[in-house]
Amino acid sequence: MKVDDVKEFLEFRKKFSKLEWFELNKAIGIQENKRADEIVLNDSDIKEIRKRINDNSFLKIR
């Protein structure tokens, strides 16, 4: 990620109020949750998720 990209993103964010950001994030989250029900994970997906959780979280999955 480049510094200019971060600056551009922050300028973009200024176009929306706090309430507008909340509503955008809520709408996006609802759609993501709907799509999550359609995802079918295979054994390699489960293995990768488990590795990421064990490597990057206080949770540990055995």
**Number of beta strands:** 0
In quaternary terms, these chains amount to: single chain
Helix content: over 70%
Shape: extended
Count of individual helical segments: 3
| Distance, first to last CA | 33 Å
Structure class: mainly alpha
Overall number of domains? 1
* Contiguous uncertain segments of 5+ residues: none
Order of H and E elements: HHH
Largest beta-sheet details: none
Instruction: Output the radius of gyration.
Output: 17 Å
The fraction of residues in strands falls at under 5%
Q: Kindly report the average pLDDT value.
A: 86
Detail the topology: elements first, then pairings.
Layout: H1 3-13, H2 18-36, H3 43-56
Summarize the structure.
This protein is an all-alpha fold. It is built from three helices and no strands. It is 71% helix and 0% strand.
Explain what the structure shows:
This protein has 62 residues and is an all-alpha fold. It has one domain. It is 71% helix and 0% strand. It is extended, with a radius of gyration of 17 Å. The mean pLDDT is 86.
